[in-house]
Specification:
The structure holds two protein chains of two kinds.
Chain A lengths: L7 E6 L2 E6 L5 H18 L3 E5 L8 H16 L3 E5 L3 H9 L8 E3 L2 H12 L14
Parallel strand pairs in A: 2-3, 3-4, 4-5
Antiparallel strand pairs in A: 1-2
Helix pairs in contact in A: 1-2
Chain B lengths: L1 H13 L11 H11 L1 H14 L8 H21 L3 H14 L6 H22 L4 H43 L5 E4 L2 E7 L4 H18 L3 E8 L5 H16 L3 E5 L3 H10 L7 E3 L2 H12 L12
Parallel strand pairs in B: 2-3, 3-4, 4-5
Antiparallel strand pairs in B: 1-2
Helix pairs in contact in B: 2-4, 3-4, 3-6, 4-5, 5-7, 6-7, 8-9
Classes of the chains: A alpha/beta, B alpha/beta.
Chain lengths: 135, 301
């Protein structure tokens, strides 16, 4: 099960890992993705993880729990996780079914996610985005 | 007046011998009678309306014009048996008087009064001839019932059309999502939040977060009366869903009554970020977005 082509592209960007889920994953694929990712955090000594679910129209309870678990495991391995790109319909469905993301941080898209990680991991104090600063 | 009375007598005198006449002669006779006494009967009708305190929203002048038209339409229906013209007229009339607050019972009331006035006049006319009276009433009553029915239905139809129109209008302007600054949305909620509206609100908000790339949303519920458990739970879900999309939500404008209700019924709002009023909410939003809040003396920022 550990072999086979990767279902999720996991890219390394500096000290961050960016995992984009491109298609719907079944439960065993989800578990494989979880193991891949946790593995790579150690290999690359990553400090932050972004999980991008923008391509998903549906996120079932197992999927959201696995993502939550990944975030918790990543934290234990020293990386901060942020989930990005949850679609409006998916967000509402998740809330209706009572499955949130727990304490895991969420952001609108990849850009926002990177910004969040930058602000949290650059020495502890948050700096306002220059683009947003009042003139 | 003289000619009128002789005419009436002629008709009356004519009647006993008309027993063997065609039944279809009855209605034309009836119509002729009602046309002939139009002014007198209409005035009697108008005074009965006044006594019953109906249609008081209309001026005497309007009342005169409209009672005349209703009377003429009424007689025409008796004559032709077709209610189409009356239907149109009733709809038209309803359109004019509904905005003035005229109620269904008033409209039905005046038509029934007219029916009564005309029936009395027929009683008077055929007093002596029981058979003739019976046959006239047999012809008159179904037609009169049909007219009353038509007018009432037209009025109610028109009223429902107005209500539907207003509902559509309300639905369209019910939940504006306003971008106030870069990454900041304000969502003022005015009016009662029912299930359908709440669903629409969430949908529009989540779509708005996506389009405007919002980071902070201020939902102002100053204008929403009666925030009950259902609405509160829906707000909580909306807040959660927005968070999943990376936006934080600030709720503002909870009235003292609403705050009391929510705490009393035990809705869990601990996860909600609430600020007293919209002004405070916007300040909090700007803080979250990293704007420096300007100091009151103008030296800040």
């Amino acid at each position: 099960m550990d072999t086979g082509p990767p279902l999720v592209s996991i890219l390394r960007q500096g000290s961050y890992l960016i995992a984009s889920i491109n298609t719907a994953l079944d439960d065993s694929e989800m578990v494989r993705f979880q193991m891949d990712l946790i593995d790579q955090i150690g290999q690359h000594r990553s400090r932050g993880v972004i999980i991008d679910v923008a391509a998903l129209d549906v996120l079932d309870s197992f999927g959201s729990r696995t993502i939550r678990d990944i975030a918790e495991m990543a934290r234990l391995r020293g990386a901060l996780t942020v989930i990005v790109g949850i679609q409006p319909d998916v967000a509402f469905a998740m809330v209706e079914l009572g499955m949130g993301t727990g304490s895991v941080e969420t952001a609108l898209d990849l850009e926002e996610g990177l910004e969040y990680l930058n602000s949290r991991l650059s020495g502890g104090h948050t700096t306002p985005n220059r683009r947003l600063a009042p003139r | 007046m003289d000619s009128e009375s002789t005419l009436t007598e002629e008709v009356t005198a004519d009647f006993p011998s008309s027993d063997d006449h065609d039944e279809s002669q009855l209605l034309p006779q009836l119509v002729a009678h009602l046309r002939e006494h139009r002014t007198k009967l209409r005035e009697e009708w108008a005074s009965r309306i006044k006594d019953a305190h109906l249609l008081e929203a209309m001026t005497p002048h309007e009342l005169q014009a409209d009672t005349t038209s209703v009377y003429d339409n009424y007689v025409e229906v008796l004559e032709t048996g077709s209610v189409e013209a009356l239907q149109h007229y009733a709809r038209d009339l309803s359109e004019r008087i509904i905005p003035r607050g005229v109620e269904t019972h008033e409209v039905v009331g005046i038509v029934l009064l007219l029916r009564d006035v005309l029936a009395r006049s027929l009683f008077e006319k055929y007093q002596g001839e029981f058979n003739a009276l019976n046959r006239v009433l047999d012809a008159y009553e179904p037609a009169a019932n049909r007219i009353a029915n038509t007018v009432a239905v037209s009025f109610v139809d028109e009223r429902e059309r107005v209500i539907r129109q207003q509902q559509d209008a309300i639905r369209e302007l019910s939940t504006p999502v306003l971008p106030v600054r870069e990454r900041l949305l304000v969502l003022p909620i005015i009016g009662v939040l029912d299930k359908e509206r709440a669903r629409q609100l969430t949908e529009q908000l989540l779509a708005g977060i996506r389009t405007h790339r919002a980071k902070v949303v201020v939902i102002d519920i100053t204008g929403a009366p009666n925030v009950d458990e259902t609405v509160a739970n829906h707000l909580v879900r909306t807040v959660d869903a927005s968070r999943l999309m990376g936006a934080s939500v600030i709720i503002t404008g909870l009235s003292p009554e609403n705050a009391q209700t929510l705490v009393t019924i035990g809705v869990d709002l601990s996860k909600m970020n609430t600020v007293g009023d919209l002004q405070g909410g916007l300040e909090e939003a700007e803080r979250l977005l990293g704007y420096a809040t300007r100091a009151p003396d103008g030296h800040g920022g």
